[in-house]
Amino acid sequence: MTVLRGSAAPPATGVGRRKTVAPHGRPPVSPARGVGRGLVQRLGPVLWVAPAAVVILFVFGYSIFQLVFTSFRYQGNWVGFENFALVVSDPLFQTAILHNTLLLLAVPVLVFLALGVAILLFECRRSVVVYRAILFLPYIIPIPVIGVVFGQLLQLNGAFNGALDGLGIGALTQDWLGNPQLALITMGGVIVWKEVGFGIVLFLARMLSLPEDVYEAAKLDGVGFFRMHWSMTLPQVRPLINFYLISEAIVMVSWVFNYVFVMTNGQGGPGNATVVSELYIYNTAFQSKAPELASAAALLLFVATLVLIIGFFRTQKAGGGTLGD
Amino acid sequence: MKIKRSIPAMLAFGAVLATAACGSTTPTSSAPVSTRYPTENVKLTLWWWGEQEVPGAQQWLTDTIAAYKIAHPNVTIDAVLQTTDGLIPGFEAAAAAKQGPDIQYFWGGIYSQQPYWSRSITPVSDLIPADELKHYTNAQLEDSNGDKTLTAPWYVNPQFPVLARTDVLSASGLTVPKTWDDLLKACDVLSAQGITTLAGGVKDGWFGGWLYSMLGAQSVTSKDDVVAAVLGKQSFTDPLHAGWWTRLQETRDHKCWNNDINSLELYQAQQLWVDGKAAMTITAGTDAPNFVAKAGADRVEVTTMPTWGTGPYAGKMGTTSQTVGVTSWTKYPQVAADFIMFMHTPDRLAAWFTTTGSLPADDRFDMSAVSDPVKKSLFTYAAQGAPYLENFIPSALDSRAVFTGVQLVLQGSKTAAQAASDMQAEADRERRTDRSLIGNFTSWSAK
């Protein structure tokens, strides 16, 4: 820690600590005033965060309450788990969950790609800032823009197939978004394209903060490329890999609505080929006009995401470190 | 970062519910309505759609609001154009919060019934005299429930004309097909030459509903058949209701459509026809004159879907009126209703036709003003039109069975029989999950 020259040691301000001798040479206060000040010191942080906490509690807490409340009712009447039973038995909901699960398969691909590219950039070093900016660019482009652009590019007679034709590999052309067998894979590819930049920047930032001399020493000792990164880089980046893994898993479970909505005009088509749980909730609420069923589905999705978040924190705790360690 | 973002994403719907819970008590349709025209400053919001299918509607609306302002200086009306995909969800969110528009645009049939069932609108018959309402085209056919008229027709949409390019057809020795066999023969001839017979796009789903109405109407005996199937008294797998899926599959088997129909939106596909790359296409009736003008009136014939059925609606064009309704939460229902009646004054009816070229939904419109043969033909079709079937099934059945089924049949992933079976299964599911459906549809069909 850097101590500013000439400054006194910082006063102890820990919550719960009782002091009758004030710092900075002030005269001691009476016991009664000391108790009052201690109370203020204890309550101070609470008071500071109270306004924000109230707003958060109202916005999130009340919404969660309403969500739970609505999911157990139908037109104002208590129906127990009936809405949940209807949702779980709905083939479209099952399809949506299956699609979310299939999209989870893209997470290891994302991690592998991001890690691989980050290591390559770490090795090259040259123009790393430029490459990093280029690779990060898709991540900051708004999803609706990506959806519209890829929706056009990937049409059967669109630019992407045109390029394949131009390259003499026209046999590979497909109706990427119009073929139900391919649409979800295409969607996953677009999501990977956008999300991978986040992982690259995350991993690269950590790698660039590692001491260079350790790598130089390893190279002098004749350690090979794969051994070096397997034994040295990966352990250092592991907490971030965990973070990226979980956050991307959450993306695939509950954050792909925008992609699907924009690229399929809110249909999740062709057929039900790209319906995901969020789109199911949205359409059930606003198209089928069944807010109770939508609430039940939303609650199930909320619980699934909560499980992932808890899993993330447990993994972090088991790893014995926090992000950036 | 994303962990924090994901929770609000999931809770967005919860927030809507929360807002709804904070809203005022839902007024019932029989709530007493003040007949006093206010003298204080009044601001109304109108959420509408229509410029997409009736170019010029925005200009007409701006002019109409300005004209109304002159007559009623204390009234300001703010018109907000909605997107196609956002029209219904936007209103649903507004209805949940009991705030937003005072006047709302609704498509006809089921789209005007649903807000009534959810008590989001005040029937216009509570606000507009019967002597006035009786002139509004299709109000009785689509937008009534019992003795109530729910929303007020604005303009008529002939649903949907087939536009045929005679130049493209005649170059291949063909005439405009009138029967189903003629159509399939044209498809065979044209596809062999690499020409698209019918240009369409189903990526956004809506066109699937059009096809259902145009093909499906040919075998039913009345709209009541469709309502009976929704109620489970008939089945969507019966030949009466399933025949159209077979016809749809035939169009695929005979390569009638553009090969990228599944990756194009409808409006993108229609451009193929304008460019002369397709012999025929289907457009909104209100937009048809513009398409005809783009391709050249001397090269276009406006017709109906070639006939395959023997029902009373075969060979007819569907007709529906796009409507406006008064929301149940507006503070000024009488002003809203007065503005709707103002939309039907002779001057505004004439201006609607002049500005948009489409037919206002009012039998007091002077048809002698129509000299263009294309428009005359369309208006005649609309006047003798058949009920537009898509407006008589639940919107969820439409999107979950019709939109998706059409996409999959045209793509080749499903057969006609599978699509019909899926539609029946979806109707069964709707009756189970929408626990008000039976009651609502029964009351609708009881009139």
From TrEMBL, chain B:
Family from the record: Belongs to the bacterial solute-binding protein 1 family.
Alphabetically ordered keywords of this record: Signal, Transport
Organism: Candidatus Lumbricidiphila eiseniae
Protein's name according to its UniProt entry: ABC transporter substrate-binding protein
Leader sequence residues: 1-20
InterPro entries: SBP (IPR006059)
Any Pfam family: SBP_bac_8
PROSITE patterns: PROKAR_LIPOPROTEIN
